[in-house]
Amino acid sequence: MLFGTKDQFGIEAMTEADLARPSTEWGRTRIWCQNESFGDFENPYNALGSASECFRSALNAFPDLWDSAFDDLDDAQIFQQFNEAIYTGTDLGSEEISQLAARYWKFDFLTNWGEHFDPLKGFLAFDPNGHTLFMVEDRNDAVRGFRFPQSCFVRAATDFVDWFDSEAERLHKKTGEQAAS
To answer: Residue 20's CB: how many other CB atoms inside 10 A?
Structure first.
């Protein structure tokens, strides 16, 4: 299923067809942004729960997922600041590094969501001008940035989370179990 669109922002996901209830939500997912895909959709049996929780967290932060430190930076500088704070480290002491991590961790996106997103490192924010800023670093350390209307992200993420919740409910029932009225 595709939630959203490939040309703006979309989430393609499926549960594996052979899952026997009760089961964890095993499946496949990838992100589409401006007709580029991120994630290995051919990699089967990935836990979909972590992606669902990350999208849920981003939706809960909407529209306030921004930091004033980004205001005068271009996209490459924003990613560099985020990357240094979370992943590549700085020359600061451990207390300052912990403060930076606490400040910037909320922007982490795709990183460690499962094998289907290895080795991507991503960033997500909602800028004050109404755009979603999505940046991703691939295995070659190339960073690409995308901006698109926040409504595209919110619609796709909401639809994906709703679908995931219904799949979780369906898969957690034992065979023959009826839904509670």
So the answer is: 7
Going by pLDDT thresholds of 50, 70 and 90, the confidence category of residue 180 is: low
Distance (Å, whole) CA 103 – CA 107: 9
Residue 163: HSE in the Cβ half-sphere, 13 Å Cα cutoff:
20
Among 66, 61, 52, 65, CA closest to 157? 52
Coil, strand, or helix at residue 19? coil
The DSSP line for 106-135 is GGEESTTS-GGGTT-EEEEEE-TTSEEEEE
Answer for the pair 108, 86: CB distance below 8 angstroms, yes or no.
yes
d(CA 15, CA 45): 8
Mean pLDDT to the nearest integer, 92-108: 85
Q: What is the pLDDT of residue 181?
A: 43
pLDDT above 90: residue 90: no
Q: Domain-by-domain residue ranges, the chain?
A: 2-172
Contact 41, 51 (CB under 8 A): no
